[in-house]
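Notes from the 1:1 (GR / supervisor)

We went over the backlog. Supervisor wanted to see one worked example end to end before approving the batch request, so GR pasted a single chain during the call. The sequence is below; no edits were made to it. Supervisor asked that the structure be written out right there so they could see what the output format looks like.
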Amino acid sequence: MSRIEVFCKLGQSFLAACGAVYLVIEVIRLLVDGSPCRFWTFLAVSVFFGLAWFFYNGFCLEGFLRSSVTIQSNSLYGTVFEVCKGDLLKESGWRVIAVNEYFDSIVDGMVVAPTSLHGKVLSGFSSDELDKWNQKVTDELEGRGKPLQPSQVRLNPQSKSIQYPIGSTVAMNKNGHKFLFVALTHTNLTTDQASAETSDLSLAIKGVLQEARKYCGDEPLVLPLMGSGLGRVKMHPNMLLHYIIQAVIEECSTEKITGNIKIVIHSKNFKQIDLSIVNKFWRN
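Structure output shown during the call:
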């Protein structure tokens, strides 16, 4: 929820409190001769009850002041499912990183953006670790890739030339930092720009959740707001979040994945998310 919307909620709370206090004063005035309080007393009492209602409503009822919310669904079978503001790379457990269909590893701002989660994670790899990651991709996805045709050439000649199906997932444990890399986006051969459709997002979520069952045990599974930013899924962040929640619940309904699942939203996207709507919609 934006700051403007929060201030509107604050104004609504104050006006509601003014109306309630004024109504009480009018009732007392009918019973007692003269006004029971002065203007400044009336204003102070209204501000007090307005703020009290604003914070109670913001944290306990609508939830528009919350930075996290717990999703409730009978299909989760005891899994704690939370949506919160934060930094995915600072979370513990198995963290989901969306990559392109080539599982590229050149972080140069063209092939892989250094500001993306994919780029940030690979930038922390040493050259030996990067070689191990590339080899792990090749080994675990052997037989699933499709090489480019001779007539197809990528913009960067050092880029990878084997495409893997959307939803393909590779797990890696780097010194206790655990990641699930999942193919989400298609890459334009002439511009190296990545993008995805809603159908790709569905395949990616399903693919990574199925793999998560093999690796998580009872450790947390942490997902980003997949498809936002450089994923370029044409969907508002609010709708994107609901789409991911629905996909996770549907997959959990077939078989439990882990005891704790979390969607972590970066602050730059969080201001576009209305957790009060999420709380209302998934409360029951």
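Supervisor's comment: The chain has two domains: 3-61, 68-281.
Batch request approved.
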